[in-house]
Amino acid sequence: MSDSVIAVVDIDGTLVDSNYQHALAWYRALRAVGETYPVWRLHRLIGMGGDQLVTELGGDELESRVGDQVRERQGKEVDALLEEMALLPGARELLLAIKERGHRLVLASSAQEHHVDAFLDKLDARDIVDEWTTSADVEASKPAPNLLQVALKKLGVSPDSPSVVIGDSVWDVKAAHNAGMPAVVVRSGGFGDDELRDAGAIALYDTPADLRQALDDTPLA
User: Fold this and answer.
1) Do 46 and 18 touch, CB atoms closer than 8 A?
2) Do residues 11 and 121 make contact, with C-beta atoms less than 8 angstroms apart?
3) How far is residue 108's CA from residue 142's CA, in Å, rounded to a whole number?
4) What secondary structure letter does DSSP report for 133?
5) Whole-angstrom distance, CA of residue 51 vs CA of residue 110
């Protein structure tokens, strides 16, 4: 068991179909403070941590002026959309299949704690996974490697322990690269295959169910 590959799995957008709701929540939060950005631009940043998204979107000036206010409002907008977020096909079954193969499993999320709680409830996953993370666990989120490193630390293993990241966005893949981990991706993030591969993804699948059927072709074989 100690030598088996550890699965570090993103929740938001990878297991739960939430990316477009998040984009809408950011749009509404920004509009509330008088800032309007096209939703497509917001979607392109979903998967990046909220601590970095506002700066990436509008620079340091926007961040210093409204960053904290927008993040607080965005969290409330997400609260109102949680019931609309459904599990992606095969999400829970993927987690079960990973555990049945003897791998340790940690869910790596930079979402707010109560949002992660809601997702864990949707997945009925507390008795499946070994650990999980939230935004409270890190100061710098994806594409920084901190979240993935903290995920391994929660398991009591070293940062260079054999592991694989499962995510849905280029930000997951870049974080995995920065942490020295391979990344397997499901396409629910809405990113193009070329950009995911260019970021370093080693394999792409349409849904968690498709990934579960192909586990023998991944480091989790």
Assistant:
1) no
2) no
3) 10
4) -
5) 10
Kindly report the length of the chain.
Answer: 221
Non-local CB neighbours of 86 within 8 Å, separated by 6+ positions:
16, 17, 122
Residue 50's SS3 state is helix
pTM for this model (two decimals): 0.95
CB 184 within 8 A of CB 211: yes
SS3 31: helix
| pLDDT tens profile 165-198 | 999 999 999 999 999 999 999 999 999 999 999 9
- Alpha-carbon distance of 184 to 166, in angstroms, equals 5
Of 4, 18, 8, 200, the closest CA to residue 122 belongs to 18
How many whole angstroms separate alpha carbon 127 and alpha carbon 105? 11
